[in-house]
């Protein structure tokens, strides 16, 4: 099967079957197909708009997982640019991939270059779920032995004052994401003191994490925390078929859907699920999506 035929076959979802043979052909022809897969994300904003306008389009999703499996560093910045386009459009075109596997994808392609991941974490224009997934990518790199736990905790402590000041219109999702991922790694002594101060000042919402959770993280210890994380899907993408084969859209008994859909915006944190299912956020995302549709309609006239 030639490259053009593979790319065409991966373009849209026509039935409820995972295209195993086609994906295996893509893997066999890794060297030739890689540049075309990377091109799925360039230029980022234009590609997002094109994909959003075609609900059947799914090739960008295959590209994310294939490039992650290839551990392709040339895909790193294009993917970062793609997921960093401001607003919620990235959620519309990827479904629950951002909250489920984006962290694994970024960790797989970054080649230990942490600068783009850190820039994404600190960029307030980026979708908050993308920023949270970028934090979790650092945890995956720790679990995989690519970077040290201490270096990540030092970084979390470094950005803590800025994130402490950052608020959103709901419940300070990013700040509490930073808190929970810090607990997942068993914070070191200086960060423990920072966290305790925020508890005492009531900056930390007990709806997210309690002081008992901090004590549990400390008691678990560094080795225990990493072992706990390793059992929670915090690893590199190594098999696209295994990673996406469970999607409901690939099973005939599941309701028909074009792309994997959001399932409560769950982030895989050890101490809590980072959920954002409140009515206000749903209403906000629906309004933004409707606005984009109206803008596209105006352009077509």
From TrEMBL:
<protein>
    <submittedName>
        <fullName>DUF1186 domain-containing protein</fullName>
    </submittedName>
</protein>
<dbReference type="Pfam" id="PF06685">
    <property type="entry name" value="DUF1186"/>
</dbReference>
<dbReference type="InterPro" id="IPR010602">
    <property type="entry name" value="DUF1186"/>
</dbReference>
<feature type="compositionally biased region" description="Basic residues">
    <location>
        <begin position="278"/>
        <end position="301"/>
    </location>
</feature>
<feature type="region of interest" description="Disordered">
    <location>
        <begin position="274"/>
        <end position="301"/>
    </location>
</feature>
């Amino acid at each position: 099967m030639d490259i053009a035929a593979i790319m065409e076959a991966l373009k849209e979802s026509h039935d409820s079957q995972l295209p195993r043979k086609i994906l295996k052909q893509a893997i066999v022809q890794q060297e030739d197909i890689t540049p075309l897969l990377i091109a799925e994300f360039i230029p980022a904003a234009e590609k997002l708009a094109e994909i959003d306008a075609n609900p059947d389009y799914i090739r960008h999703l295959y590209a994310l997982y294939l490039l992650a499996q290839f551990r392709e560093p040339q895909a790193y910045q294009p993917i970062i640019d793609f997921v960093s386009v401001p607003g919620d459009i990235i959620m519309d075109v990827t479904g629950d991939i951002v909250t489920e596997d984006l962290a694994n994808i970024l960790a797989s392609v970054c080649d230990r270059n942490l600068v783009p991941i850190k820039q994404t974490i600190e960029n307030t224009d980026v979708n908050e779920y993308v920023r949270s997934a970028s934090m979790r990518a650092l945890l995956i790199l720790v679990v995989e032995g690519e970077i040290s736990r201490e270096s990540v905790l030092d970084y979390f402590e470094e950005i803590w004052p800025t994130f402490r000041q950052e608020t959103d219109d709901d419940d300070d999702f990013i700040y509490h994401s930073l808190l929970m991922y810090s607990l997942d790694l068993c914070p070191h002594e200086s960060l423990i003191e920072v966290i305790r101060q925020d508890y005492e000042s009531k900056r930390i919402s007990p709806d997210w994490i309690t002081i008992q959770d901090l004590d549990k993280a400390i008691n678990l210890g560094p080795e225990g925390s990493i072992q706990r994380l390793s059992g929670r899907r915090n690893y590199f993408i190594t098999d696209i078929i295994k990673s996406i084969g469970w999607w409901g859209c690939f099973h005939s008994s599941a309701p028909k859907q074009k792309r994997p859909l959001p399932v409560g915006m769950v982030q895989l944190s050890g101490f809590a699920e980072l959920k954002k299912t409140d009515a206000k956020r749903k209403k906000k995302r629906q309004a933004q999506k409707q606005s984009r549709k109206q803008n596209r309609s105006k352009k077509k006239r």
